[in-house]
Amino acid sequence: MNVLVINCGSSSLKYQLINADTEEALASGLCERIGIDGRFKYKSNTGAKVEKEATMNNHEDAIKIVLDALIDAQNGVIKSLDEIGAVGHRVVHGGEKFAHSVVINDEVMKAIEECNDLAPLHNPANLIGINACKALMPNVPMVAVFDTAFHQTMPEKAYLYGIPCEYYEKYKIRRYGFHGTSHSFVSKKMAEFAGMDINNSKIIVCHLGNGASVSAVLNGKSVDTSMGLTPLEGLLMGTRSGDLDPAIIEFIANKEGKNISEILNILNKKSGVQGMSGGLSSDFRDLGAAAAEGNVLAKQALDVFCYRVAKYIGAYTAAMNGVDGIAFTAGIGENDGAVRESVLSYLGYLGIELDKEKNAIRGEEVLISTADSKVKVCVIPTNEELAIARETVALI
Ligand code: ADP
Questions:
Q1: b vs e for 148-174, b when ≥16 Cβ sit within 10 Å of the residue's Cβ?
Q2: Of 28, 149, 297, 321, which sits most exposed with the smallest number of CB within 10 A?
Q3: What's the pLDDT at 334?
Q4: Residues 346 and 218 reside in one and the same domain
Q5: pLDDT at 170
Q6: pLDDT of residue 343
Q7: Are 58 and 207 part of one and the same domain?
Q8: Which residue stretches of the chain have pLDDT < 70?
Q9: Ligand 1 binding site (Cβ under 6 Å of any ligand atom)
Q10: pLDDT tens-digit profile of 292-330?
């Protein structure tokens, strides 16, 4: 069966058509600037590539363009829409309502809408995507896969904040965590790849992309993670500050005459390694090159990033009373050997030994610790789309 995986943002839509039997991606791409002017990108496993301007007034227009491309006589990969057996939607916030993926029906739509407050930028866009698919493919079953669901196994001590309890009771303010699909996929894959028993394992997953988070996975279940109520908490990221003293918000507000929304915008979009490097870049390739040429701010940003990942690994080792495996994944985790080496340089006390030759391998699952290392360290490429397709098939 072919599964169409949809990941909707407020003005963008990523898609992938996956043959769930062979787990091959038949086609993938992106619609951008929806509601503005519209750009469309498509590539297929047969080598077809399309990039064009395309008017997209809304998400329904965007999905229509995607479906047309998939059945296009020249570049398409299927003959008719009947060959799409199901649609899997990435949904960012499932609050406490969803600890698992679900088949979408009216009740589920309502429950997702009730989580809008918790992710005001993302959930409404996800719902728009679901509605657009429903309008164009009314008889195709759809599944919602939540970024937060995998972390619903966290114990209270990990998810409660040190604020008056009524805020949790009234508004459900707590740690939720994100990137759950990736943390789940990568922890399982790590156990499989490294020959570990997932039901008797202590794995730390470092999902280091533009957005970045660490999770502690005990016996296959998430017991802690670095992102919180929103994806702003935790590690230093491309443009997000991660952890900071909340009093800084008032301090900047007073000094710069800004309101809370303006400062949160700075913490989300103008901070992280980009802000720390004086606006140089949020991309680790640029920062690595600049640091090598002696750019002090770029070097500082990279140092703070790696130090913070190492601190979280230390914290989660304590949380699980040990660690058997550490997995690096996502854009930086999979590609940046220098970042991995720097992070691991703090962890010698755990008996971790890095195999530098293995650490240079790219684009595949690889064990980068030596045979003598007390903890197995792996690079495990994440594949959130495939994970969503698998969940979708399992549920329908
Ligand atoms: P997201 O899905 O959160 O947008 P990704 O997981 O795609 O992020 O990661 C994107 C980031 O990965 C880029 O911003 C860049 O910093 C980093 N990255 C990608 N390729 C490389 C590379 N070859 N070397 C170092 N960093 C890389």
A1: bbbbbebeeebbeeeeeeeeeeeeebb
A2: 321
A3: 97
A4: yes
A5: 96
A6: 98
A7: no
A8: none
A9: 209-211, 238, 282-285, 330-332, 335-336
A10: 999 999 999 999 999 999 999 999 999 999 999 999 999
What is the Å distance from ligand 1's center to 332 Cα?
5
* Structural domain count of the chain: 2
Q: 286 and 371, same structural domain?
A: yes
Q: Are residues 136 and 206 in the same domain?
A: no
Residue 263 forms part of a structural domain: yes
Which residue type is seen at 183?
A: H
Do 125 and 217 belong to one domain? Answer: no
**For tokens 């098939």, what's the residue?**
393
| Substitution site in 28, 147, 269, 285 for ligand 1 pocket (most atoms within 8 Å of beta carbon) | 285
What was the pLDDT predicted at 11? 87
Known catalytic residue at 61:
no
Would residue 384 count as lying in a domain? no
Q: Tell me, what's the pLDDT at 363?
A: 84
Residue range of the domain that includes 89: 2-146
48 and 141 belong to one structural domain:
yes
Both tokens of residue 15? 């898609």
Do 9 and 130 share a domain, yes or no? yes
Q: What is the pLDDT of residue 311?
A: 98
Whether this model's pTM surpasses 0.85: yes
How far is ligand 1, taken at its centre, from the CA of residue 336, in Å?
Answer: 9
| 107 in the same domain as 204 | no
Between the CA of 362 and the centroid of ligand 1 the distance, in Å, is 13
Nearest residue CA, atom 7 of ligand 1? 331
Q: Give residues with Cβ within 8 angstroms of 3, minimum separation 6.
A: 17, 18, 20, 84, 85, 86, 87, 88, 388, 389, 392, 393
Read off the CATH number of the domain in which 302 is found. 3.30.420.40
